[in-house]
User: What shape does this take?
Amino acid sequence: MPRPTKIFNAHAKQRAEDAIFDAEQKTGAEIVVVVANRSGGYARVADVFGLACATAITLVLMWVFEDHENDWVFPTRTHLHPAIILGVMLGAFAVFAALADTNPVIVRTVAGKRRLRRHVDRSAPSWFQRLRVSRTQQRVGVMLYISLFEKMVTIIPDDAFESMLAEHQLEPVRLRLQHALDAGTLPRELPDAISQAGDILARALPAPKKNMDELPNELHLID
Assistant: This one.
């Protein structure tokens, strides 16, 4: 799976950063955009998938070489040597675990949306703190967090927006980014989504006469 620094070349990165600058001219908010490669680790998910496939293949193989003297579907006696059974199981486990480890679709399917969302919901606030989004003087930071592996987007506004901005008002931006992420058009669509966020934030917090730029207008690409 391509990493953020591969997806966003120098031109695409500059377009996004120019969009951040332009959006912040309309509002007193500080917009921070993060594109992360992934939000959590899924090594155990690949192992579970590998083990399940290995077990299924081994049972089928044992059933094929079973005596078939009873009506039980589950193989109770087989002509296969135990060493062959063990070899098949270990080999199948290695192959399918490796396959899952390199295939995001398999991992996302096995992990389930709830687990993916849990990882994103933990990682996004962590980056919110690490990038000092909450350190603006009036607590007016807003972070757009995009996680490529999980294919999920979340938006975190700082405390000042609790009384200015209804929770659903930035939802069109999130949905736009989610659609771009699903369609594989994120580098092209991101500047327009940032501009849309700027318009929404401007209605809640218009740009003051002295509009200080407290945070860098940088697209944070987390490989």
